[in-house]
């Protein structure tokens, strides 16, 4: 077992072990909450929260979520739930998920109305919520349909999402040619993520341009995505450079400069 794994196990065990004094204070806090004596609950919870006890941070999150003796704050509640969730505390994980669902459900109602009215930004967001199950049951086909509606209106994020859907076969039959076409549409508007994904298409030999080595084209896309601030693209760019033969490097850099004139410079 490596040190990182060992530390994770120790941390998890620490979450599971509750000494009698802590358990007593936690029980007092829970009893006080049930009795709506929030002042006492806060008094009992504070030292446990300061000590990083996940069961206590979870309860403190509920205090802020519901406004029990403290100003109601979804952000504060979420921060307390996250503390316990990071340590593998199941109740904190469940509280965080339930809170997210409440937030998403409120957003969903508004987004659906705007999407139905033809708002491209809302259609794209509705697609994301359907794809990832944010406040709604996952429906990949319906997600793709929303992305397509927004993309057809020229919304660049949706155009990228349509490309990504074709790339991975999410809600639609996988088609690398169509994926590249949509990525290029978005890249022509300076959309960084599409440049990165074009780089991945060519790095995995799924690109449609066979005029030169796929690795050379992959480098050119990653170089430009990196120029727009994508640190992952910068890392892949360097690895691609090491793969290229000496005589290919200058070609790759020249192509990157050519792409820069179209995809980067106009948007800087």
Give the topology, please.
Blueprint: H1 3-16, H2 20-34, H3 38-50, H4 54-66, H5 74-86, H6 90-116, H7 120-132, H8 140-152, H9 156-168, H10 176-187, H11 192-203, H12 214-227, H13 231-243, H14 246-263
Helix pairs in contact: 2-3, 3-4, 4-5, 4-6, 5-6, 6-7, 7-8, 8-9, 9-10, 9-11, 10-11, 11-12, 12-13, 12-14
Descriptive overview:
The protein is mainly α and 268 residues long. Among the domains are: 96 residues, no CATH class; 79 residues. The chain is built from 14 helices and no strands. About 5% of the residues have low confidence.
How far from one another are the termini? 48 Å
Number of strands: 0
* Shape category: elongated
Biggest sheet details: none
From the structure above, extract its key features.
single chain; 268 residues; mainly alpha; 76% helix; 0% strand; elongated
């Amino acid at each position: 077992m490596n040190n990182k794994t060992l530390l994770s196990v120790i941390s998890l065990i620490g979450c599971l072990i509750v000494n009698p004094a802590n358990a007593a204070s936690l029980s007092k806090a829970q009893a006080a909450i049930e009795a709506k004596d929030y002042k006492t609950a806060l008094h009992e919870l504070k030292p446990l929260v300061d000590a990083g006890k996940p069961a206590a941070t979870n309860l403190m999150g509920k205090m802020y979520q519901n406004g029990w003796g403290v100003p109601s704050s979804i952000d504060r509640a979420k921060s307390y739930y996250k503390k316990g969730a990071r340590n593998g505390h199941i109740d904190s994980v469940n509280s965080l998920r339930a809170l997210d669902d409440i937030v998403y459900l409120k957003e969903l109602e508004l987004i659906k109305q705007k999407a139905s009215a033809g708002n491209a930004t809302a259609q794209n967001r509705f697609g994301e919520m359907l794809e990832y199950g944010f406040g709604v049951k996952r429906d990949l086909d319906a997600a793709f349909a929303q992305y397509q509606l927004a993309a057809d209106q020229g919304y660049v994020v949706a155009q990228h999402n349509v490309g990504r859907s074709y790339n991975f076969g999410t809600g639609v039959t996988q088609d690398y040619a169509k994926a590249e076409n949509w990525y290029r549409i978005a890249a022509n508007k300076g959309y960084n993520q599409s440049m990165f994904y074009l780089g991945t298409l060519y790095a995995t030999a799924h690109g449609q341009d066979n005029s030169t080595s796929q690795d050379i084209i992959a480098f050119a896309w990653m170089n430009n995505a990196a120029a727009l601030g994508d640190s992952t693209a910068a890392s892949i760019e360097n690895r691609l450079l090491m793969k290229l033969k000496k005589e290919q490097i200058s070609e790759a850099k020249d192509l990157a400069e050519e792409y820069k004139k179209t995809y980067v410079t106009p948007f800087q």
